[in-house]
Structures are given as structure tokens and as C-alpha cells.
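ok trying again, last paste got cut off:
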Amino acid sequence: MSFFAFFSSSTAAAASTFRFPYSVALSPRNSMPRFSSLASSQTLPSPEPEPKPKPKPKPWLLVGLGNPGKKYQSTRHNVGFEMIDAIADAEGISVSSIQFKALFGKGFIANVPVMLAKPQTFMNASGESVGSLVSYFNIPLNQVLLMYDDMDLPFATLRLLPKGGHGGHNGMRSVIDRLKGSREFPRLRIGIGRPPGKMDPVNFVLRPFNRQEREELDFTFQNGLEAIRILLLEGFDKSATFVNSSKSMKVRN
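nice, full thing came through this time. structure:
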């Protein structure tokens, strides 16, 4: 056998037993081999995007209306102040600093941030303080709760409303004016009853409470406190249902 015949047969035998790890394709332009891997390529997973931090919840602004000074303490016109005091005592919130013409304090009810305010401008100018607090802290109006006395409700009863007018209450009139006429904020009305006989309403709202009235009113404040907790944690509808179905101490006795 010639050398060339032996070389050709050996080359063919080697080619039959050896396999390239690549397939060969000819380029249509230059007929040069083009290699592609036979092994399946693995795609690396894309990194998960980092979760966006949750925005901090806006605090609620809880405002009680009244008149400053010892002369007006424990009078019917100051039940809004007393409602704030009941909340502050129960939740351990100090309402002792002065901001925007109001006694002011910050704290939490459960995990909800709240601000408590008692305007010191006298009732008829309450809006000066409330308007400034809402503007400075950028509080949404549906998280501004006003608490105040109402002669159109029976004594020691509560009503929670999502919005409304001033109903002849000068403190609420001032607040609405300072909020550019908006009435879109909730309010907790605290009943003080009608003046007896022909008593002047102005004199009536500045009268103090007797012992029995004080007991009934303190019971009402506890209902109000529970209503506010429900409002902040479970929403307006559940709170309104609780308020409107609550009975006074006189009925329960």
C-alpha cells in the first residue's frame, strides 16, 4: 500500500471516531465555517427590583373648639376642649406646646399619628389657628376632625358627620371661612341641649355643668374616644355606625 493510500484511510477512520463539539455551517458570502455551541445556554435571572419605601402616613389633626381661660372652663361651649383632654389623657399625649395660636401636641392612637389642637384665639376666630395648622402640616381635609358643642342635639349625645355647614356655630363658621369655604372635613358634634325657657343662648352655652350632667358628659367622652379610635383604625362608616347606635348613660341606667 502506498503512503498516500495509507494516510487517506487513516484520516477517514479518525474522522469517524472523533466528533467536534461544534456544528459547522458555511457562510453564504465567504464559505468560511461558522461555529455555534451545541450546549444549551443558561439565562441568568434578572435581579428583582428593590421595593419602594412606603410613604409615611399623613397624621390626623384632631381639633376641639372652645374658649381659653379659667372663666370658660367646664362650660357648655368648651366641650370640644374637654374632648381633646379626654383623648390626650387616654393616649398619653401632652398638649402643652403652642403652635399657630393653639395648645398643641403630637402622638399616636394605636399606630396612627395624630395631632391634637385647642385653638386659643377664642371661639369666633378658631379658623385662624385651624387654617394655619392645616396649611403648614399639609393635612388632607378628610383627616381634619373638628369637635364642638351643638345645641341642636340632646345633651350628652354624639353625631359624627363626614362634612357639612356651620349650622350657626361661630367657631365652625370661622374654620370654614379659613379653609376657603370648604366643608369637606368630618366633625364630631357633642350635644349640649337647648336653653331652658327663654334663656339667652349666649348665656346658656357659658353655663357650667351640674354634678349629674358632668357624669353623663364624662360617659359621652368615653364613647367619643372609642369612636375616634374606630375612625382612625377602621374608617368613617364603622365609626359613624358606632356613634349613632351608642346610648347615653341615662338610657343605659
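cool. Helices lie at 3-17, 79-91, 126-137, 170-178, 201-205, 211-234, 236-245, 249-252. Strands lie at 22-26, 33-37, 60-64, 97-99, 102-109, 112-119, 144-150, 158-161, 187-191.
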